[in-house]
Input
Amino acid sequence: MDRSETRIGAARRRADVAKLVLAGTGVLAFAASAALARAAYPGHHKQGVKALSPPQRFVRIVRQNQLESGILAPTQADPSVATAQS
Amino acid sequence: MNRFSSMGCEVIVDGATSDELAHVQALFEERDAVFSRFRPDSELNAVNAGRGGRLVSPLFARMVEAALQAREQTDGLVDPTLGAALEAAGYDRDFAVLAPDASAGGSASPAGTVELYGRVLLLGGGVRLDLNGVVKAAAVDDALGLLAGPGFVSAGGDLATRGEVDVALPGGGAVRLVSGGLATSGRTKRRWLRGGVEQHHLIDPRTGRPATSRWDEVTVCGATCLAADVAAKAAFLLGDDGPGWLDERGLPGRFVAAGHAHENASWRTGVAPREPACT
Output
């Protein structure tokens, strides 16, 4: 094997190692940035997510309130309609 | 004022244009076609004859949901699963053709299970739905929503109004309905004989038989006709506790027994003459 081929092979190996180091460094930098952003950026929630649905007690009260009253007043004229059993 | 027949009763519409009246009639016809127990092709009968999960129409699902809410709000007194009990009591055909029956009246199982997941309906074994407890009153409310201006809609005495209207009451007297709905439930109209025993259409879900109540008729005023109708049925079934149950909810109620009317505190407050405002 001549000397020039040995030098080219060695250069290729160094280039491959350098590529691996650069790729690894990039991945690590991305992961660290993402972790820091998650911890520090205000748009990211830091606790577990809670459902937005209202509490069951509130739901029960609202439903119960569906049986609300209408408005009555003393009669002022001859009735134009009658309420009867359905 | 316009009148027509639908859902086994007279419907009165006041304040509607001719187009609005046509829409109201179409609405009642649709509700009758979907929810009648006496039309073999109704969706209600198809659902009751089905097995397992049933996919129901959006309208059917909305009425089941309203019926389940009524059951929840009345602690189970107004229940949509009493179709079999009603048939066992003899109400198995249109009331207009119901004749005395010499055979003894039976009883079906009290209230059963019904679950609704979106439009998928699950019924417990032997359960037959009867949604009459909510369908007619909801139709009255929906029909009123079709009117652009003031007016009222009444179906068999279940009434909803936009604008003030004077209403005659069972047993005599009258009241002005300023807003909301007025409904009367009782046992003196839809009643029949079976095995020599008087039956009526208000089934007590605790026994599966026509309810025994000290009241003949109960009239309630609600924010909607549906609220009034559900509350009137519950108050009738509660008997002596009916007036107090309505007062706890701020609902005016008028109870008739043996020709005498009894008003709860909310009713008396509502119809008391107003003091003139100080100036």
In short: The two ends of chain B are 40 Å apart (CA to CA).
